[in-house]
């Protein structure tokens, strides 16, 4: 596992683009001067590599060679002494795993001693798992070596001024060394353990460790990594294999001792430990034997637990006097946040300064986003600078944590938001949120041999189950589910949730894994960091009704459950990362009679180093917005000056269009001469074939395009873009446009807020009644059908009850009942002195709805006036005849007479001045019986007579 420190090189995200750089030059220069003024000088450094022989073991007389590199800042000398840092690597790693960390600390002015722990790489000895007699005593001998260096600052003879930093295996060493040697001045243990026995044998109801559930996945990786002389598996060593420096592999030959190396060096001493049992590799015999016993049975004996606790800080925390910064990762199925919590409480009880920092990474999550690793680096430097270098104010004991906040477009990666509070609340949080669960008792099967097993807590990929989803992660028949109702508000979980379960088993024992999923409205389930709570229950009854409830403490998490999401508690019988009973059996599990308790914490967000540039960009955007506002204000002011006069002839007329023409640069003429008026109380239909110029006329009317010639007056005001008189018009032109993530009602409210008019003038109730959306008005508009969007757009156009309503195809997408209702709405709308202009291709609806009509063809008006007058001019007649086909042949021979389409069973004939009696006589002479002759008085007939049956317009654009 790479420590957060090494991944946290502070980088500055500069805005790209010439304009952005030019606009922010002054701010960037100021920021650069500030950084230059406050940032410490970064001297260079030199390195010395050597094999140091130290004497350790129970009696302190067993020699072992340790492969070391000493980083010494330039200028450090006996006259200019510097503080020191012992830098320990993770399990399976070497001194090269932490080289980037060492260089970073040396650049800050610290002398850094990095070494390869015994049993790894080129160092000798065997692996004792941070045993106080071996690895910890090795660390003490390295302190002796530092104290003898003339360049190292000391507090007393043989007492170097030193801090110890390490991640995972190295973090355990830092804690144990501080407890064993009071010369240590400060420590920064990262992603490490409190109780190694509990880490590998967890039991989440507080039971004895000897009955814990064996974490076989991680244990196998540990012992596999220690079973060879190489650098071990990537991810535990502190750096991945790809991060090992080129030219310095762990298997390379030993380097030459550096000139002037300190005491403790014994050239020619052995560099490897005894290998012993091949199955143990470089592990000490007692460690290997304990592992083999646990791995074979899945259960721990007391001797194995005692051995693991010998290498655990849990029993010696009261001896730690060195100020401690505990950094722990939330994405960690190996050493979860529980371990840091136990360390913090144990050390603080002794009065030692302690600070706790959680971050989004861990053994399963790496160093986390850059913003997170930068925060960890800052905290580490601040801690060492004060307690080791003696510089800067006391860091205090603030508690910090972080949560993934989203994607940073500037950094092209995830970004974490950090939070701070003045005290450490522990895993219980400040307050608890109780969420009820539902679900009956359910039988769950333990598979024979533990296979197949659920996928949730895999080493290095504990969050994999969140990608797989419920069924793929949890095997059908092997888990029970209990779910909550959707949450009414978001909950920020910070700490360990708890829940009570009951279980029954015919064998009297059960091993289960309890997990808490976050389920979104679409059913997608997320298991935060793949964390599970293993539970071994004993003394169970055969029926669940007789079972006593037990409280399960789930792993601590930092996770936001959004409003509308549900919680799902899963109790499974298997997990890939753990050893489970091999005998098949069936348990019964109940958890629906108790809520899950979620811890919450009150904290303040921490600004990130990217905040400066976000403020710069925000300032630039604000300047752009201000500039646009100024431009719009100037344009509107100019238009207001132009529109200050009112044409006296049209002062009371909602709309007057005079000699309107619209031509395009390519010579195309969409509207050549349109001239009409709309008066109060009128519903005017704008009619014409496709391409006649209707939509272009409406676009010009609404200011969406500029006319080539002509003028438009609204209540006497000449219409120009931005004219205030536009506020007296409501419109639906070229289809509705809404924000898809908002509900229909919220879209209407947002539109009205943008108008700046008083809220009480909106008349929402009437508009919503017109829309007829019912409860759908509360749904997000991205889920609307075309007809629903059309109805919402009509309601939006009617908000504020404008004096002139302009609608383009308002019935598009509406069903017949809604069309009929729209007809009544428009007629009622015009009764109070308001006016309506509607464009439609449904001539029957226009005839029933409109009081007046304007017929446009090829960009010109061919008829206008009251609908009844236009219909009255129609020369068409409906003939009911005995033989329509024969009658059509006769009528086609008559000059000027033509048969119109859509006769509805008869023939609609345009006599064009020919007497009806003459037409009837011709049909009778041809032997066609005429049953009925009815004058045709439909707008459709008049329309066809005016524009022609096959008329084509000039083509709207």
Automatic annotation (TrEMBL):
InterPro entries: AAA+_ATPase, AB_hydrolase_fold, ABC_transporter-like_ATP-bd, ABC_transporter-like_CS, Galactose-bd-like_sf, P-loop_NTPase, Xaa-Pro-like_dom, Xaa-Pro_dipept_C. Keywords: ATP-binding, Hydrolase, Membrane, Nucleotide-binding, Transmembrane, Transmembrane helix, Transport. Residues 236-251, 264-273 have a biased composition (Low complexity). Residues 655-883 form the ABC transporter domain. The chain crosses the membrane at residues 20-39, 612-635. Residues 230-273 are annotated as: Disordered. GO terms for molecular function: ATP binding; ATP hydrolysis activity; dipeptidyl-peptidase activity. The keyword Transmembrane applies. Belongs to the ABC transporter superfamily. This is ABC transporter ATP-binding protein. It comes from Micromonospora rosaria. The lineage of its organism: Bacteria, Bacillati, Actinomycetota, Actinomycetes, Micromonosporales.
């Amino acid at each position: 596992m790479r420590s957060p420190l090494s991944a946290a090189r502070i980088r500055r995200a500069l805005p790209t683009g010439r304009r952005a750089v030019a606009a922010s030059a002054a701010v960037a220069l100021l920021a650069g001067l500030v950084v230059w003024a406050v940032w410490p000088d970064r001297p260079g450094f030199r390195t010395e590599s050597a094999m140091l022989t130290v004497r350790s073991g129970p009696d302190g007389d067993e020699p072992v060679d340790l492969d070391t590199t000493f980083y010494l800042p330039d200028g450090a000398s006996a006259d200019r002494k510097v503080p020191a840092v012992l830098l320990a690597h993770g399990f399976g790693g070497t001194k090269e795993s932490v080289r980037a960390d060492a260089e970073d600390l040396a650049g800050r002015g610290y002398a850094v001693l990095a070494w390869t722990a015994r049993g790894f790489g080129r160092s000798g000895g065997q692996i004792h798992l941070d045993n106080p007699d071996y690895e910890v005593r090795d660390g003490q001998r390295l302190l002796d070596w530092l104290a003898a260096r003339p360049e190292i600052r000391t507090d007393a003879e043989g007492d170097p001024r030193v801090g110890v930093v390490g991640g995972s295996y190295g973090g355990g060493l830092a804690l144990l060394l501080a407890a064993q040697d009071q010369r240590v001045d400060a420590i920064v243990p990262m992603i490490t353990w409190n109780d190694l026995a509990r880490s590998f044998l967890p039991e989440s109801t507080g039971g004895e460790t000897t009955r814990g559930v064996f974490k076989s996945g991680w244990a196998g990786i540990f012992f596999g990594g220690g079973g060879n002389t190489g650098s071990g598996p990537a991810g535990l060593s502190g750096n991945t294999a790809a991060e090992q420096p080129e030219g310095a592999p762990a298997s390379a030959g030993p380097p030459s001792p550096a000139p002037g190396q300190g005491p403790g060096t014994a050239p020619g001493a052995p560099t490897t430990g005894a290998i012993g049992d091949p199955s143990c590799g470089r592990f000490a015999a007692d460690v290997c034997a304990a592992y083999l016993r646990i791995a074979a049975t899945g259960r721990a004996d007391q001797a194995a637990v005692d051995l693991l606790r010998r290498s655990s800080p849990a029993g010696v925390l009261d001896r730690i006097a060195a100020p401690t910064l505990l950094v722990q990762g939330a994405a960690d199925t190996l050493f979860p946040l529980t371990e840091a919590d136990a360390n913090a409480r144990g050390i603080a009880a002794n009065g030692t300064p302690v600070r706790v920092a959680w971050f989004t990474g861990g053994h399963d999550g790496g160093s986390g986003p850059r913003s997170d690793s930068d925060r960890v680096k800052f905290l580490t430097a601040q801690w060492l600078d004060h307690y080791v270098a003696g510089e800067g104010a006391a860091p205090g004991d603030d508690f910090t944590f972080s949560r993934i906040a989203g994607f940073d477009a500037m950094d092209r990666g995830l970004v974490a938001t950090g939070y701070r509070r003045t005290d450490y609340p522990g895993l219980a949080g400040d307050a608890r949120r109780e969420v009820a669960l539902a679900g009956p008792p359910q039988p769950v099967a333990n598979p024979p041999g533990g296979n197949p097993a659920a996928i949730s807590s895999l080493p290095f990929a504990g969050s994999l189950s969140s990608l797989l989803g419920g069924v793929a992660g949890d095997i059908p028949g092997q888990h029970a589910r209990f779910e909550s109702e959707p949450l009414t508000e978001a909950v920020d979980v910070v700490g360990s949730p708890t829940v009570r379960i009951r279980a029954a088993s015919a064998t009297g024992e059960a091993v289960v894994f309890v997990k808490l999923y976050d389920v979104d409205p679409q059913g997608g389930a997320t298991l935060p960091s793949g964390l599970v709570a293993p539970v071994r229950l004993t003394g169970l009854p055969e029926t669940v009704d007789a079972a006593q409830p037990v409280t399960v403490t789930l792993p601590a998490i930092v996770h936001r459950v959004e409003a509308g999401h549900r919680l799902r508690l899963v109790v499974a019988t298997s997990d890939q990362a753990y050893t489970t009973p091999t005998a098949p059996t069936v348990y019964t599990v109940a958890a629906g009679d108790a809520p899950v308790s979620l811890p919450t914490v009150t904290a303040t967000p921490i600004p990130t180093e990217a905040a400066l540039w976000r403020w710069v960009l925000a300032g630039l955007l604000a300047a752009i917005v201000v500039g646009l506002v100024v431009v719009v204000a100037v344009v509107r002011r100019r238009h207001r000056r132009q529109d200050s006069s009112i044409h006296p002839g049209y002062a009371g007329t909602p709309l007057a269009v005079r000699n309107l023409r619209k031509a395009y640069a390519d010579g195309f003429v969409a509207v050549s001469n349109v001239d009409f008026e709309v008066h109060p109380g009128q519903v005017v239909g704008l009619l014409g074939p496709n391409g006649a110029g209707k939509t272009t006329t409406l676009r010009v009317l609404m200011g969406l395009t500029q006319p080539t010639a002509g003028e438009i007056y609204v209540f006497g005001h000449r219409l120009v873009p931005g004219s205030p008189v536009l506020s007296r018009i409501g419109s639906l032109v070229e289809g509705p446009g809404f924000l898809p993530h908002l509900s229909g009602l919220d879209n209407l409210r947002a539109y009205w807020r943008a108008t700046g008019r008083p809220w009480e003038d909106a008349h929402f109730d009437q508009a919503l009644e017109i829309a007829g959306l019912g409860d759908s008005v509360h749904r997000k508009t991205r889920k609307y059908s075309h007809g629903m969007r059309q109805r919402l757009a009509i309601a939006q156009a009617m908000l504020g009850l404008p004096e002139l309503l302009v609608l383009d195809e308002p019935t598009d997408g509406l069903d017949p009942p809604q069309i009929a209702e729209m007809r009544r709405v428009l007629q009622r709308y015009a009764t109070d002195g308001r006016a309506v202009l509607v464009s439609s291709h449904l001539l029957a609806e226009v005839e029933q709805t409109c009081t007046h009509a304007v017929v446009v063809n090829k960009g010109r008006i061919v008829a206008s006036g009251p609908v009844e007058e236009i219909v009255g001019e129609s020369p068409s007649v409906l003939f009911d005849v005995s033989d329509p086909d024969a009658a059509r042949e006769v009528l086609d021979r008559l000059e000027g007479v033509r048969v119109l389409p859509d006769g509805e069973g008869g023939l609609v004939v345009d006599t064009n001045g020919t007497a009806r009696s003459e037409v009837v006589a011709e049909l009778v002479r041809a032997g066609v019986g005429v049953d009925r002759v009815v004058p045709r008085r439909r707008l459709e007939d008049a329309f066809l007579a005016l524009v022609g049956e096959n008329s084509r317009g000039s083509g709207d654009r």
